[in-house]
Write a structure and sequence with these properties.
The structure is a single chain. By secondary structure, this protein is α/β, with parallel strands linked by helices. The chain folds into three domains: about 130 residues, 3-Layer(aba) Sandwich (Rossmann fold), CATH 3.40.50.2300; about 180 residues, GAF domain (Beta-Lactamase, 2-Layer Sandwich); about 55 residues, Orthogonal Bundle (Arc Repressor Mutant, subunit A). Helix content is about 55%, strand content about 15%. It contains 14 helices and twelve strands. The strands form three sheets. The chain has a five-stranded parallel beta sheet with strand order 4-3-5-6-7, with helices on both faces. The chain has a five-stranded antiparallel beta sheet with strand order 9-8-12-11-10, sandwiched between helices. Helix 9 runs antiparallel to helix 10.
Amino acid sequence: MVETPIETSKSEDGMVRERSVLLIENNDAQLKVCRNAILSQSPLYGVKAITTGSEAAKMMSTNFFDIVVMDYDVPDMAGDDLIRAIHKINPNCPIIAMTGADSPDKALKVLMAGASDYLPKTGEYFKFLPRMITTNIQRALLLENLRDMYQRVERISRDEALLNRLIVNIHGSLDLAEIIDRAAQSLSDEFGVSRAIICLSSDPTSAMRIARQVARPEASPISEKSVLFQRYHDVLLDVGERRPLVVMQDDTFAFATDVKSDLIHHGILSMIMVPLVYRGRLLGLVHLDQVDEPRLFTQAEISLLSRIANQMSIAISQARLYQIVETQSTSIDKLTDLCSQLNSVVNSTRELTERQESREKVRVKLSTREIEVLRKVAQGLSNREIAEALHITEGTTEVHVSRLRKKLNLSSRAALVRYAYENHLC
């Protein structure tokens, strides 16, 4: 779970507060009672007390608050409208609404309006505020962490899907020109960049040559005479660390200064270059740039591009090997040996792709737990042994096996075993 940094602020008494509370109460006496109750039990909370809804909107626009405690019946604004206004400014800020009436209908109305909690103003209600505030802040932090986690998982899934598409695309041919063309077009489409360029060199020390360039209408093609590619090539040879390089037009480090005139000439506001390396041998580079707006490539994008470059390097090496096979066709022994090696590489790549596609199809049909049970069935385990291995009950195991048969339209346990092996789940 992601740790959310604690917001700190300094209160009027000079103490540093870990959390800030916006208190909206039009009754001065109740406002003072609520404020004192919060501070007495939660001294690390800073409380900003105001009396009207209009003040709340202004305060939320210019300050950060971890939580809002509000009287649902403020005089200058309907409670529903105030809650919506707060959510519009900060959608993730929890709101505790206090009401003079204590009824299920009132509570439902408050919660339906968007409040995260409800407190009727009966008896010494203010004593419940500190605990409610802590609970709602913790709940908000948990939801924020869950959202972050979901976004990360979603991004990883998208990246893996993109990588799989590119692998299938570039490994679908042994013709070098076709591989380069597919790769450049896919990079342009998938990353939405202004230009996607692939440069190759015949050996690590020779000059980089543009093998394929895909440029959108707003970006004119870059000439091979540009210093961008050769300067990056020099850096790779000098430094010896073959890492991706991200450059913004206004950067001031040595490389950016050396190529700034070319960046300006070609209208490049940001770019990334990734080396193509196969078994320690530098084959070329991938260049992506943006001319419509500066784009700071994220660490996730850089990592994904590095993995794509690795697959491209393998495909390029395979294609070059195939070219060697064709040019050496006069030597039967060499041709047979090289073709055998090439077929082995291509078959293993195809098998990997088919295995991946097969597993993806199974994952669409089955849940993670069902796949685990299916694998144990394929290993020859009984329902009791599966239950012990997966720490579930035998009855639950029987339910999973029954669902597997129904989902996969299979009539026997032997058919499940055969299905698992055919779909590479063992």
